[in-house]
User: Fold this.
Amino acid sequence: MKIFISKLNESWIIDRVRKEWIQNNKSTTARYIRNANVIWIIAPWLWKNIPKKHLENKIVVCSIYHLDGSNHEKKDFLDRDRYVDYYHVISKKTEKQISDLTTKKISSIPFWVDENLFFKIENKHNLRDELRLENKKFYIGSFQRDTEGSDLTSPKLIKGPDRFIKIVESKFKTDPNIEVVLTGKRRQYVISELTKRGIPFKYFEMVDSKLLNKLYNILDLYIVSSRIEGGPQAIIECGLSKTPIISTDVGVASEILSPKSIFDMSNYDKALPDIKVAYKNSLEYNLINGQKLFRNMFSEVEKLFF
Assistant:
């Protein structure tokens, strides 16, 4: 069996996952779609870029991250479903969503995280000195985009940046030592709202994996405030780097985090990080274990269709 993985080239997590899969599974990966008998549509919104003749004549595995419930997204799902033979999702919540729309087989496996890239760095004080951050500060992190497309002012509400601002503002009123650490593209909304409120922040924009791991390690708290999520991958990255994290009940949060670390907007002030639970559950999805789960999935595909 030869697998062709659709390309994305958006400097996003899926590009990293695709690269790591190809590096570690060369014998079963096809460089060209014509040489494959399985197509892995790893970026589902780009399915129309694949020639229909290949969709019709090869086995198609499609990854789905989340559905927002819109009629447009449902229509696109059903149009694509005609060609898909097998689905992969990255959370049980998404599995439930799409099981209402298709009878195709579904496997739920979070994407792996390389623990050689995301790991605990012991001396937080030295690390803060290296990054020119103050040791007396309480640093809260948010490393995902928060604005819609090319519109750099409107919040991407499914990611909950408005919620993030509300939580940080509430905490800042009782602890003026709080400072926010941001990375990633399209952070204009959060930057604008923090500036309006006089809440200090550090913005590192686009960083490589080495610096990103250091930024996780200087944090006192990472907050996922999303309304809808596929992963997010930050939950497992925080788990492996032993970064204190709390999250809304989205994506893989309930599969990785302790129940006491999951909040809604009525009880966020009571949510508590549980580093031990997050680390233990995240280990299941490190590079070795995670890719093994995907290889098992493709073995099932082979048994079903070949």
